[in-house]
Amino acid sequence: MTGLTEEQVSFYNKNGYVAPIDIFTPEQAAELRAELESLEASHPDAVVGRNRNNVHYVTPLFDRIAHNSKILDAVQSLIGPNILVGGSTLFIKEPEQKGFISWHQDARYVGLEPYNWVTAWLALSNVTTQNGCMYMWPGSQHDGPREHVDTYGKDNLLTRGQTIMDVPEDITVPIELKPGQLSIHHPWVVHGSGHNLSKERRIGFAIQSYIGADVDSVLGKIYVQQARGVDTHGYHEHTPRLTGLMQDHDVRFRDQANDALKDIFYKGAKKIGKY
User: Fold this and answer.
1) Residue 90 and residue 203: Cα distance in Å, rounded?
2) Closest to 16 (Cα-Cα) out of 101, 143, 112, 126
3) HSE of 144 in the Cβ direction (CA atoms, 13 Å)?
4) What residues pair up with 183 in beta bridges, in sequence order?
5) Distance CA 43, CA 139 (A)
6) pLDDT tens, N- to C-terminus, the chain (275 residues)
7) How many CB atoms lie within 10 A of CB 237?
8) Domains of the chain by start residue, with CATH
């Protein structure tokens, strides 16, 4: 196992994120992107709308990424050797698209406790300030949960448009990545991303989340896959890895998992959003 360096772990513990982490070579990343775009051409509904959630259940591309050993090495440096894949989301911002992600904390609505888990975000394109990269509020994870307002903004890519107000944007840090690079962030770190102002696609795949075996779901049911180690607690129902591209039984299971995820994300909400 290579994993993160001591300096990277220390940076993560202080700031709530670590980036960039080299995972794939530029050539490998280009091949992954080409595979995604071939998938979009052959199965146009596979990775849009609600189907952008849990794409690793139905596409070999994202299954391979979610179980990639170099990513798991980095994650193990932060949460230990018993790692479960708890979900995934594909985030694509098309050229000159108005979609954005408001300031938020992942832990606020996911219901995973204790907080021995991370979100890993892999770039499949250049990710820059011009095309809508993430910004992090360094150290904000140390203050725990913050108040969110459900805006349901039409261009907001979050389920409820959940937003933390009065974030000191002047001290936030852009997370620019090259294709094949990864960022990892803490459940409580405040982060968000802006519009894509460029003429390029911004493509990112988030594993939301890699959880330790000691992490339970307190708001509803989730499904997991064993990524590494053993499940020492048995809190969740395990599911096998996929059998091929968009197989009927895998698609039905993805829809089932997304229904369960919807129940969690909208628990206590006044209305249901588009995701």
Assistant:
1) 8
2) 143
3) 2
4) 121
5) 41
6) 789 999 999 999 999 999 999 999 999 999 999 999 999 999 999 999 899 999 999 999 999 999 999 999 999 999 999 999 999 999 999 999 887 888 999 998 889 999 999 999 999 999 999 999 999 999 999 999 998 887 777 777 776 667 899 999 999 999 999 999 999 999 999 999 989 999 999 999 999 999 999 999 999 999 999 999 999 999 999 999 999 999 999 999 999 999 998 888 765 555 555 54
7) 11
8) 19-265 (2.60.120.620)
Residue 2, pLDDT score:
83
pTM, whole model, 2 decimals? 0.94
Any idea which residue has 């220390």 for tokens? 10
**What would the DSSP string read from start to end of the chain?**
-----HHHHHHHHHHSEEEEEE-S-HHHHHHHHHHHHHHHHH-TTTTSGGGGBTGGGT-HHHHHHHT-HHHHHHHHHHH-S-EEE--EEEEEE-TT---BEEEE-THHHH-EESS-EEEEEEESS-B-TTTT-EEE-TTGGGG-----EE---TTB-SSS-EE-SS--GGG-EEE-B-TTEEEEE-TT--EEE----SSS-EEEEEEEEEEETT-EESSS--EEEEEES--SS--SEE-PPPSSTT-HHHHHHHHHHHHHHHHHHTTT-SS----
Q: Is-contact 118 183, C-beta < 8 A?
A: no
Find where tokens 């280009």 sit. Answer: 30
Question: Are 261 and 222 within 8 A, CB to CB?
Answer: yes
Place of tokens 């300030």: 129
Q: Which residue has the tokens 């849009």?
A: 48
CB burial string 29-42: b at 16+ within 10 A, e below: beebbebbeebeee
Q: Which two tokens stand for residue 152?
A: 């349901």
